[in-house]
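For the sake of transparency, this paper describes our internal protein records without simplification. The tokens are whole numbers drawn from a learned vocabulary of local backbone shapes. One such record is reproduced below, unchanged from the form in which we store it.

. . .
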Amino acid sequence: MLVGAIASLPAVAGAERALATTAAETSDERAVRLANELSEAMNGFMTPAGGTPHWVAHIGPSMHPDPVWFSQDAGSATDPLADTIAEYNAKLAEFSAIPVEQFVSSEVEEDIVMATYGPASDRLCYATPPATSLRGVAEAIRYAIDQRAFIDIAAERVVKSALAYLERRYRV
């Protein structure tokens, strides 16, 4: 017993020094120190070996109902559904910019559709890619709203409310 007690004395002294150092920190200094430690830990958070981290930690005061949460970096993470919707929107804008005089027949119009937004539209309709991030979920909701796909005004408002939450909370 005595050997164990003596062996633990250096550990107790080390813990006492750590507590004294922590007690000397201001709240601001502690927050910055812990944020830097978290930043280092985030380099490997939910990231395969050799992969690029795409997650962001969000930390708030502990008195908040949900003070710690994580999200994907909307700017860097790829998402098959969001990328297809973005392609569709860009190609639809190209189609919309074509002068009406060029649509001389339904065959020409079909060729123009297939040269612009048609392939992306077909993927969305017949081979819908998965959403793999909150950005993909938000883009899918925006797509449904933009398409005026709702026949029930209450359903549309509920979905818009959900999108507003995602935008506010996760900045997607």
